[in-house]
UniProtKB/TrEMBL annotation, chain A:
<feature type="transmembrane region" description="Helical">
    <location>
        <begin position="58"/>
        <end position="80"/>
    </location>
</feature>
<feature type="transmembrane region" description="Helical">
    <location>
        <begin position="278"/>
        <end position="295"/>
    </location>
</feature>
<dbReference type="InterPro" id="IPR001851">
    <property type="entry name" value="ABC_transp_permease"/>
</dbReference>
<protein>
    <submittedName>
        <fullName>ABC transporter permease</fullName>
    </submittedName>
</protein>
<feature type="transmembrane region" description="Helical">
    <location>
        <begin position="31"/>
        <end position="52"/>
    </location>
</feature>
<feature type="transmembrane region" description="Helical">
    <location>
        <begin position="139"/>
        <end position="156"/>
    </location>
</feature>
<keyword id="KW-0812">Transmembrane</keyword>
<dbReference type="GO" id="GO:0022857">
    <property type="term" value="F:transmembrane transporter activity"/>
</dbReference>
<feature type="transmembrane region" description="Helical">
    <location>
        <begin position="301"/>
        <end position="318"/>
    </location>
</feature>
TrEMBL record, chain B:
<keyword id="KW-0813">Transport</keyword>
<feature type="domain" description="ABC transporter">
    <location>
        <begin position="7"/>
        <end position="246"/>
    </location>
</feature>
<keyword id="KW-0762">Sugar transport</keyword>
<dbReference type="InterPro" id="IPR003439">
    <property type="entry name" value="ABC_transporter-like_ATP-bd"/>
</dbReference>
<comment type="similarity">
    <text>Belongs to the ABC transporter superfamily.</text>
</comment>
<protein>
    <submittedName>
        <fullName>Sugar ABC transporter ATP-binding protein</fullName>
    </submittedName>
</protein>
<keyword id="KW-0677">Repeat</keyword>
<dbReference type="InterPro" id="IPR003593">
    <property type="entry name" value="AAA+_ATPase"/>
</dbReference>
<dbReference type="InterPro" id="IPR017871">
    <property type="entry name" value="ABC_transporter-like_CS"/>
</dbReference>
């Protein structure tokens, strides 16, 4: 008892307590993935020509920008203990909607973006409503929503892709065009170190990553979302409006996905029915890989960003080493499996 | 009509690691007799049932069934030998997606020698026979998931009875039934008694026990603490034996309350229970005691805004108080330390200081941005004042002992001043020294608020309270000052032999 009291006192007064030494296993869990990423970069720098250049770095970031943005959104739903399978189709729906607004209806860039964000908000609200009030399990609700949106985005054009000057179902020719301001989102590059280096999508990715990271780690709302995901009942008994937090997470996810869709449309310059197939899997993989970063063993924004970067580095490096394109999904899958083993088998933090 | 025992347990022992759960239990069941087993939480009832039904192995002891040694190695073997258990969780006894007929004959589809293909008409015929023997009038084609809890319970029992058991064990069968539904269950149980089945009936509910018991056996701390078979049965003695007679009216100096803080008038918790009134004064610690399932948690949750009362109203410091969410309750200064900390309190992904600050993040945040420094300061203060044994406020909750986890849970609600602090079973799974620390801290900090503690164990009430209220069947039935307690009266009230109090 006396000993215990002394120990307590030490801890309470901030007196030095025995330094906690990390075992090799703990070190591996905590820094393993970051070391792996660093090793990968060094490897590619050494064995390929031109990997170690600003252009290459920007290219990697650009290749993961849209999946990264979606992954940050889905991280929010993972934090509250949910899941959002509809993000890929929200993004493609937003892409089709923005094209439709501008090309068919002759709207401007601002209207197009507003419509997209609105779609994200509405889909998020519906997802949240289905999960919270209709008690549909998250995976099933968002799976249904995904299916619904994949179909919905094809209805206005009767299954055609949208491009400037396209022929409408009734035989007339669409009069609108993609506004230059909108296309700039996909084509403008900011000067950074070199002139015309950094594309808008990369800037948006970095900004959103910082915003969601700050939100989840440093605001009380983010903290309560983690509490809801970890023990919903305890969060409720601590006064948290649990349902509101859950619905907000799906709205965040929907809005992020629709921002991804806007960037996709701006990059392609058309509403392409066939694009965006891989968005869902790639972004979910990035978010799940994020569990392994710094031994977090939980969804986190920093991890998600690193996870997206990891996949981008690996694919860019392999491409520069002449690996064929069809091996890409295999490599991504392999990385995901290894990351999941890192998270769940090696880390004992979750009992 | 003393008969030879059909089922006899002698010297049954069971330990889990260092914890001895059963320390030599002797129990006899006779044909056509309902033996009620009473015991508080952790007395060892569930372990006893699980050994007898073949789920656990025993460490030592002998069980005989009709003179033969009975040592089932699996639940199926126990059933084949003629000992059938209906477990507390009704849905464990039935398959929700199948119809009644299939449920009634399920065990036949699934034993050795069961046919590969079955004839649905024959299944229905057999099921009808089983139902008829039990006097069960349920549509055999109905799906279990469409039935009420009581009907499911009947099906589970009928399914058990299809084996023609010699011994039937019912583990708290009425815990989720209404009184009308329970009445139907009693009739079935009485019919089985008349057919000569030896029945072990496990329950806390005094109304069940009065209705059914031929013999009462009390279990306390893994030992039989009393056997009552002389008519009329000594219910009070049974409750006494179950709770233990270590009653030492606490050595605390009883304080009188200052002005009333919370007043509840004609509060009714369930549609069938009697309304009651309750006043909590400033500076006093009030304990509400009563058996499991008498509505203690329901009252705690009503005061905290988790559920709404059926009728009645509350005032807090003279103003109307009708919280519709936990957040509203917290804003008015009514805090609840919920029971079962693992389920209702601890956020496992959070460390100590994040757990402590959880309800009050809003108060210590600026423009929504949390201040980790003030969180850690608050946590360090609580760790020091409650004596939480830990390395630092950043430790994971899972590294703490049960008592220290509970100190963190209580500390969480002591970081801010409250008007009413409610604690539901705060000493559950807490070692004796942590319990003393917590009780002392609660009494020392009680000035300026009303403190309400819900406990099943009487010792705990004596240790902490100025006033002790007794709850039975979702209403308050007694009040005592913790100074000159009439223990017999208190026990009688707990056992349900009470007059209404104003």
């Amino acid at each position: 008892m006396n000993l215990e009291q002394t120990k307590t006192l030490n801890a309470a007064t901030g007196a030095p307590h025995p330094v906690h030494k990390l075992t090799i296993r703990e070190l591996a869990i905590k820094y393993g993935f970051l070391v792996l990423l660093l090793g990968l970069i060094l490897f590619f720098c050494a064995f390929t020509n031109g990997f170690a250049s600003p252009q290459s770095a920007v290219f990697i970031l650009q290749s993961v920008a849209i999946t990264g943005i979606l992954a940050l959104g889905v991280t929010a739903t993972l934090v509250v203990g949910g899941f959002d399978l509809s993000i890929g189709s929200v993004a493609t729906t937003a892409m089709m909607a923005s094209s439709y607004v501008m090309v068919v209806m002759g709207g401007d860039a601002f209207t197009a973006m507003l419509v997209c964000i609105l779609i994200g908000v509405v889909v998020g609200l519906i997802n949240g409503f289905l999960i919270v009030y209709m008690r549909v399990p998250d995976l099933l609700a968002t799976l249904g929503m995904m299916f619904l949106l994949v179909g919905l985005q094809r209805i206005p054009t009767e299954g055609r892709s949208i491009a400037t000057g396209m022929t409408m179902p009734d035989g007339s020719v669409a009069s609108g065009t993609f506004s230059p301001a909108f296309l700039a989102l996909g084509r403008h590059r900011f000067d950074f170190v070199l002139p015309n280096l950094v594309p808008v999508s990369v800037v948006v990715l970095i900004l959103l990553a910082i915003v969601i990271w700050f939100f989840l780690e440093y605001t009380r709302f983010g903290r309560m979302m983690y509490a809801v995901g970890s023990n919903e009942r305890a969060a409720q008994l601590a006064g948290a409006p649990v349902n509101a937090y859950k619905i907000s997470a799906y709205v965040i996810s929907g809005v992020f996905a629709s921002i991804g869709g806007i960037l996709l449309a701006a990059r392609l310059g058309r509403g392409d029915i066939a694009s965006g197939n891989n968005l869902l899997l790639d972004s979910v993989a990035a978010a799940l890989i994020g569990f392994a970063v710094l031994g977090a063993a939980k969804p986190n924004a920093f991890g998600t960003a690193i996870g997206a970067l990891f996949v981008g580095v690996l694919l860019q490096g392999l491409t520069m080493m002449n690996a064929p394109y069809y091996t890409q999904d295999f490599v991504k899958g392999g990385v995901l499996v290894i990351a999941l083993v890192f998270t769940f088998a090696l880390s004992q933090r979750r009992r | 009509m003393v008969q030879e025992a059909v089922f006899r347990i002698e010297g049954l022992r069971k330990s889990f690691g260092p914890n001895q759960v059963l320390g030599g239990v002797d129990l006899e069941l006779r044909a056509g007799v309902i033996t009620v087993l009473m015991g508080a939480n952790g007395a060892g009832k569930s372990t006893l049932v699980r050994i007898v039904s073949g789920v656990y192995d025993r460490d030592a002891g002998r069980i005989t069934l009709a003179g033969q040694v009975f040592s089932p190695s699996s639940p199926a073997e126990a059933i084949r030998a003629g000992v059938v258990t209906v477990h507390q969780n009704i849905n464990d006894g039935v398959v929700a997606d199948l119809d009644v007929a299939t449920n009634l004959t399920l065990d036949r589809l699934n034993g050795r020698g069961a046919p590969l293909v079955f004839n649905p008409r024959r299944v229905r015929r057999e099921a009808a026979a089983v139902a008829a023997r039990m006097g069960l009038s349920i549509d055999l084609t109905a799906r279990i998931s469409d039935l009420s809890l009581a009907d499911r319970q009947m099906v589970a029992i009928a399914r058990a009875m299809a084996h023609e058991p010699k011994v039937l064990i019912l583990d708290e069968p009425t815990s989720s039934l209404s009184s009308a539904e329970a009445e139907r269950l009693f009739q079935v149980v009485e019919r089985l008694r008349a057919r000569g089945v030896a029945i072990l009936y496990i329950s806390h509910r005094m109304s069940d026990i009065r209705r059914l018991a031929d013999t009462i056996v009390s279990l306390r701390d893994g030992r039989i603490s009393g056997i009552f078979e002389d008519q009329p049965l000594d219910y009070e003695g049974a409750v006494n034996a179950m709770l233990g007679k270590k009653i030492s009216a606490g050595d605390i100096s009883v304080r009188a309350a200052t002005a009333p803080v919370l007043h509840a008038a004609n509060l009714q918790l369930t549609p069938t229970s009697r309304p009651f009134s309750l006043t909590l004064g400033g500076g006093e610690v009030v304990a509400i005691t009563g058996l499991v399932g008498v509505g203690k948690t329901a009252l705690a949750e009503t005061l905290f805004g988790v559920r709404a009362p059926v009728s009645g109203g509350m005032t807090l410091d003279g103003a109307d108080y009708a919280p519709r969410s936990t957040r509203q309750a917290i804003e008015r200064g009514v805090f609840l330390v919920a029971k079962d900390r693992g389920e209702n309190g601890i956020v496992p992904g959070f460390n100590i200081y994040e757990n402590i600050s959880l309800p009050f993040l809003k108060r210590i945040s600026n423009f929504g941005i949390t201040s980790r420094r003030s969180e850690r300061d608050l946590a360090r203060t609580q760790i020091a004042s409650l004596g939480v044994v830990c390395r630092s406020e950043r430790d994971e909750m899972s590294t703490l002992s049960g008592g220290n986890q509970q100190k963190v849970m209580v500390g969480r609600w002591l970081t801010q001043a409250s008007r009413v602090l409610i604690l539901d079973e705060p000493f559950q799974g807490v070692d004796i020294s942590a319990r003393r620390d917590l009780a002392a801290k609660l009494r020392a900090s009680a000035i300026g608020r009303a403190t309400l503690v819900f406990v099943t164990e009487l010792d705990e009430a004596f240790e902490i309270a100025d006033r002790i209220l007794v709850m039975s069947e979702h209403t308050l039935v007694g009040e005592h000052r913790n100074a000159d307690i009439n223990v017999d009266k208190l026990l009688a009230e707990i056992a349900g032999q009470h007059q209404m109090v104003g």
